[in-house]
Amino acid sequence: MYTCTMRCNTGLYTVHPTTKILQSHQVVSCDSTTDLWSHEGTNNPSREWFQCVRVYDLSSLRLESTMTLEGDSKCPKTSALNAQMKYHLLNSTNREYQCLTNGSCSMADDESTCNSTNNTILYTFLIQQTSNLAYSVLNAFGGELKREAESGLVIFNLTLPDYNNPNNTNNNNSTSNSNSTSNSNSTNNSNSTSNSNSTNNSNITTRASSGSSVISLSSISLNYTIRNSCQNGTQLVDSDRQCGECGAGHYGRDGICSECPLGTYSYLPGAVQCVTCPTGTWTATEGAQALSQCQESCEVKRVDNGVVVPSPGTMVISSANVSLTCNTNYNTVKGVTASFPCTQPLQCFSKCTLPQLEEDLEKSYLSISRGFSPGDTIEHGASISIKCINDEEEKPNHVTMTCNNGTPLRSETCSSVGRIFKRSVVLLLSIITVMIHISY
């Protein structure tokens, strides 16, 4: 078994195609039974060789949380929810939230939303890690917040002005509201009887007749997702902790590298988009890495009475084959299904129905050989031998019938001349014999 080692220059790495693990070198081996290198497996159908690329830090690290609240069926202003959520997090003794106090995390107020459904409220908010992105603190952050939310420990105490938004039904509103902060304080103010009662009034909406009524929303569940983002032209690698450039023949969007589509190419790592081939050219496969892979193109044409693959209108390189399958009672020059170069004119020809055969003159009947009989069909271009049925040895003894796009054509007809001549000779000899007898 042969092995080969490829090493990248300092500061560059290879990215494993499936695990996305960074390595400074790659070792591949050759299987003598299949003549394939080890990297040419099902996980790498294009058999693309490893590329050395640069690695960057994450461009962003976000905790996206959706908290389910109960206690009212109408969404308050998101600014009020944001203010009380911040108050809860900043005044907590949980060390998992300390990134907010030390400045390594922040809350993205303008991306918060509130939607109401089935008498519950869905409050979505985002926490973004802003420093030391190679080490995420958001997993622990989200886990602790989920525990508190599902234990009913996150409570929002809101006043009616927090709902005073004519467009707040199922919509978000990021306008700041200083009342929400003071309301949070009043929740923790044991001297405020009405606020204290509403906080302890588990999940029940209280709307007193006075203008100072308080609505309590309690958390019942929370789902969160950690989203690591890379700049365009790169992909998430190394357990989603870093971003590696997309290799040549690829482009990167939303942390994912994809092969350049047919008809495009990219010749440098880190491409954000692929370059379109010049007019009249196309690529044979996806993932082209050079302009030289753009070859003369051909558009697949529609064929009457048949189906072509790829479908009509598809662009391929001019040397590519297309498959043509003809409908019932039609065939190509190679059979019912066959492959042809895209540039070759394609046609489905009609099959021929064999007729009942009978000659004029002496009524010499013809039979069709090789198991065929009148009413059978033969493909376009096919020829069969027809035997002339006579009781005499005559030429031709056989004729040929060929199918030409639905019309059976005979090469010639069975000859009756020999038979007539022989019968005439016999008749003449008979007459001579009779005349001889008469003369005697």
3D structure, described in words:
This protein has 6 helices and 32 strands. It has 440 residues and is α+β, with helices and mostly antiparallel strands. The strands form 11 sheets. Strands 7, 8, 9, 10, 11 and 12 form a 6-stranded antiparallel sheet that branches. α1 (78-90) crosses α4. The longest helix is centred in the C-terminal third of the chain and has 23 residues, at 417-439. The radius of gyration is 43 Å and the shape is elongated. The termini are far apart.
What order do the helices and strands come in, and which of them pair?
Elements: E1 2-7, E2 14-15, E3 22-23, E4 25-31, E5 36-37, E6 55-57, E7 60-70, H1 78-90, H2 98-101, E8 105-107, E9 113-117, E10 120-129, H3 138-150, E11 155-159, H4 178-187, H5 193-200, E12 214-229, E13 234-237, E14 242-245, E15 250-253, E16 256-259, E17 264-265, E18 275-276, E19 281-282, E20 295-299, E21 306-309, E22 315-317, E23 321-326, E24 330-331, E25 337-341, E26 349-350, E27 352-353, E28 366-368, E29 377-378, E30 383-388, E31 398-404, E32 407-410, H6 417-439
Antiparallel strand pairs: 1-4, 2-3, 4-5, 6-14, 7-10, 7-12, 8-10, 9-10, 11-12, 13-14, 15-16, 17-18, 19-20, 20-22, 21-23, 23-25, 24-26, 27-29, 28-30, 30-31, 31-32
Spans of at least 5 consecutive residues whose pLDDT stays below 50 are 166-212, 360-365
Number of helices: 6
Helix content: 10-25%
Largest sheet: 6 strands, antiparallel
- Report the structural category: alpha+beta
What integer is the average pLDDT? 78
Number of strands: 32
Strand percentage, roughly? Answer: 25-35%
Task: Round the Cα radius of gyration to an integer and report it.
Answer: 43 Å
